[in-house]
Amino acid sequence: MKRILIASAAIASLFTTGAVAADLAPRPYTKAPVIVDPGYNWTGFYVGLNGGYSWGRARETATIGPPFPAAAVATLSQNVNGGLFGGQIGYNWQVNPKWVLGLEADGQWTNERGRSNDFLGSIRLPTPGNDFNILTTASISNETKLPWFATFRGRAGFLADPSLLLYGTGGLAVGEVKFSTQATVTAQLFGPGSTGTTPAGPLVTLVGPVLSDSQTRVGWTAGAGLEKKFNQNWSAKLEYLYVDLGTKTYFGGTANAIDVSFHDHIVRAGINYQFTAGPVVAKY
């Protein structure tokens, strides 16, 4: 009888435990957040440094003064080449997985300069009475410098892959163009007569003063480049820019007025640090 009671109590205990367990709600299942690889996020502010080289060209149009004819005009030029170094700041918008738009401003310090020594011409004029003639020659020495320039540009690019941006760029350019010039005139008396070629006196050389002027000029720029991301924050770029600062008159209002045009071809490499958000977390 005692054994029967013990067995009955054990069976009742099992049924009671099972009923309580059946009444408990199942343990909720929580899926761990999944980190989704966002690829490369191009949206955000960035800053960077760059360096490179430029091949500039200055061209001058000058009127040659007396004793040359009043309409005499000389066209001269210099190659204005040199290294450059600077920095940039900008903002990108990645509008979809393939396209990026942006704005960028940069400032450059350069050692670009170019010089030329040009022969302007010669003229033979008779002296009063035509007993002799004077052969007069003129030459000019010019120097052009570009100490600094800055650009303010838009950028539009295509992502060849998530980390490689191919872009075009263009906008406003501002730069300081320094120009200096010095003229040299020589004169010598020849004879006999107005066409004689025998020197009849010493060579006289007159060297003019060095004239210098500097102007901050506004123009335009356009170019293209590529930028490669190595991680979310760091990227490197290679870029070509054409800069045109137009034509300005130097020494205006004087007998030495001269028109100077300037344009530049620039190749530079740079590195950028971009301030971006962290990885995207998928929510369920």
Summarize this structure briefly:
8% of the residues lie in helices and 68% in strands. The chain has one helix spanning 2-23; strands at 34-36, 44-63, 73-94, 99-126, 133-161, 164-191, 198-199, 204-207, 211-229, 234-250, 258-275, 280-282. Strands 2-3-4-5-6-9-10-11 form an eight-stranded antiparallel β-barrel. The protein has a two-stranded antiparallel ribbon with strand order 1-12.
CATH topology: Porin
DSSP strand (E) fraction?
over 45%
Distance between the termini: 60 Å
> What is the 3D shape?
rod-shaped
Q: What's the overall average pLDDT, rounded?
A: 86
Q: What Rg, in angstroms, do the CA atoms define?
A: 39 Å
**Order of H and E elements:** HEEEEEEEEEEEE
Overall helicity: under 10%
Q: Under the CATH scheme, which class?
A: Mainly Beta
Total strands: the figure is 12
Count of helical segments? 1
How many separate structural domains?
1
Structural class comes to mainly beta
The assigned CATH architecture is Beta Barrel
Strand adjacency order, main sheet: 2-3-4-5-6-9-10-11
Contiguous low-pLDDT stretches (5 residues minimum) are: 1-12, 14-22, 280-284
- Sheet having the most strands: 8 strands, antiparallel, barrel
Describe the structure.
The protein is mainly beta and 284 residues long. The chain has a single domain, classed as Porin (Beta Barrel), CATH 2.40.160. The chain is built from one helix and twelve strands. The protein has one helix spanning 2-23, and strands at residues 34-36, 44-63, 73-94, 99-126, 133-161, 164-191, 198-199, 204-207, 211-229, 234-250, 258-275, 280-282. An eight-stranded antiparallel beta barrel has the order 2-3-4-5-6-9-10-11. A two-stranded antiparallel sheet has the order 1-12. The longest helix is centred in the N-terminal third of the chain and has 22 residues, at 2-23. It is rod-shaped and about 125 Å long. The model is unreliable at 1-12, 14-22 and 280-284 (pLDDT under 50).
